[in-house]
Amino acid sequence: MKINNIEKASERIKNAVLNNERIILYGDSDLDGIASVVILGEAIKNIGGRVDCAFFPDREKDGYGLNLNALEVLKAKAPALLITLDLGIGNVKEVEVAKKYNLDVMIVDHHEPLDKVPDAKIIVDPKQKDDSYPFKGLANVGVTFRLAEEILGDNMSDNLRKSLLELTALATIADMVPQVDENKYFIEEGLRSLKNTFRPGLKALLTILGDGNVFAGGILKFISALNSAESLGFENESYSLLTSSSDKECYNLAQELVNKTQAKQHRIKEICDEIERRISQKPDEAVIFEGDVSWRLVLAGSVASTICNKYAKPTFIFRKGTDVCCGSVRNPEGTDSVSAMKTCSDFLITFGGHVLASGFRVKTQDLDKFKNKLNKYFTK
Ligand SMILES: [Mn+2]
C-alpha cells in the first residue's frame, strides 16, 4: 500500500530531472520541513538532478506556509517545478498566484486538509480524505522518505538509506508525532545509524554536545539545537548545517545553534512565567488565550506546548501586531483545535495544522470575537 499520488509525484520529479526543468524546494522552517528538503534534495541529486534552490519562509516576518513575499522572489525562476514540503495544504490562494507566475506546484504535506484544498496538480498528504494509506501519523519527513524510496527504487544505496533515516528519525521525534508503527521503525533505525553518521553537520553537533550525553538521554537537546535555527532571507542555518561538507563550517554553525537554543529556552521561561501570572486572574476560562507585542512568533509553539502540558487546556499564544496577530495552538488529547477554528473561518485570515498543534492569523480587531467563540466551543 502506497500513499496516494506518491508514484505520480516521483514520476513528475524524474521527468523534471530528465527535461532539465528548474526545481525549487520550499520547506517549513522547523526540523520536519528542513529535513524533508534535505532528503528530497539528496534523492534528486542521486538520480543525476539538481535542486535550483531551497527556500524557507521567515515565520516571524511572513508567517507560516507558502507566502506571497516568497512568490515575488520565486517568480524570477519561472518556469519551474515548485515542491512544497511540510506546508502548502492550506495555501489555496497562494497556489493560485504561483500558477499565474508559471510555477508548477506540487504539495507534499502531512497537515490536516481544510474544506478546500489548493488546486495543485499533485498533492501528497496521507491525511487527504480519499487517501487509504493505513498509517496517518507520519511526520512530513516520513512522507518524504517514502517519496525518496519511490524515486530511487533499487538505486538507494545502503549508506544513503541510513543517512536519510537519521534525518527521518530526528525530525519524526522533533515533530512530536506518535512514536508507533512506521515512526517507531524510523526512529530505531535512524538513531542507531546516527552513532556512526557520515554527515558532517550531525558529527559536529555530536562533538559539541558530547555523543555520550546525546545517546544517554540527551537526544532532545540535540534536536532542540537543530530546531532553533531561524530562516532569514529565505535561508536557514540548520539546512546549511545538514548540507555542508566543510567540517569547519559545520562546527561553527553547530556551535551557534547550541548558543541560540540556550537563549531561546531562557526567553521561553520568561514568557511562560508572564502567562501564568496572567491566567491566575482568570481560572474559569475554558481556553488559555494570551498574546503580547513583545513575544516572538517563533517561540509561540514552544510556549503553548509548555503551558498546555501544565494546565491541560487548549492554549492559543500569539504575537500581537497593530493590524494582525499570528499565533500557535496546542491542545490536550481528545480536543481538536482545527475543528474549533473552523467555526471561526469566516473571520480568520488563515489557520491550519494538526488536531493537537496548529496555528492561525487573525485581524487584531477580531481578537475578542475569536476568543469568545473559542471559549464557547471548548465549554461545550
Ligand atoms: Mn511537520
How would you characterize the overall build of this protein?
There is one protein chain. Helix content is 50%, strand content 15%. The chain has 380 residues and is an alpha/beta fold. It folds into 3 domains: 189 residues, inorganic pyrophosphatase (n-terminal core); 67 residues, no CATH class; 98 residues, Diaminopimelate Epimerase, Chain A, domain 1 (Roll), CATH 3.10.310. A hairpin with a 3-residue loop joins strand 11 and strand 12. It starts with 5 loop residues before the first helix and ends with a helix. The mean pLDDT is 96. The site of manganese (II) ion has 6 residues, from loops.
Structural descriptors:
Diaminopimelate Epimerase, Chain A, domain 1, 5-stranded parallel sheet, inorganic pyrophosphatase (n-terminal core), binds manganese (II) ion, 380 residues, alpha/beta, 16 helices, 5-stranded mixed sheet
Gist of the model:
By secondary structure, the protein is an alpha/beta fold. 50% of the residues lie in helices and 15% in strands.
Number of helices: 16
| Rounded radius of gyration (Å) | 20 Å
The spatial strand order of the largest sheet comes to 2-1-3-4-5
How many β-strands, per DSSP?
12
Shape: globular
**Overall mean confidence score, pLDDT:** 96
What's the SSE blueprint?
Layout: H1 6-18, E1 22-27, H2 31-46, E2 53-55, H3 59-62, H4 68-74, E3 80-85, H5 92-100, E4 103-108, E5 122-124, H6 140-152, H7 158-174, H8 181-194, H9 200-209, H10 211-215, H11 219-227, E6 231-232, E7 235-236, H12 237-243, H13 247-279, E8 288-292, H14 297-311, E9 315-319, E10 324-330, H15 337-342, E11 348-353, E12 357-363, H16 367-379
Parallel strand pairs: 1-2, 1-3, 3-4, 4-5, 8-9
Antiparallel strand pairs: 6-7, 9-10, 10-12, 11-12
Residues 32, 86, 110, 139-140, 175 line the site of manganese (II) ion.
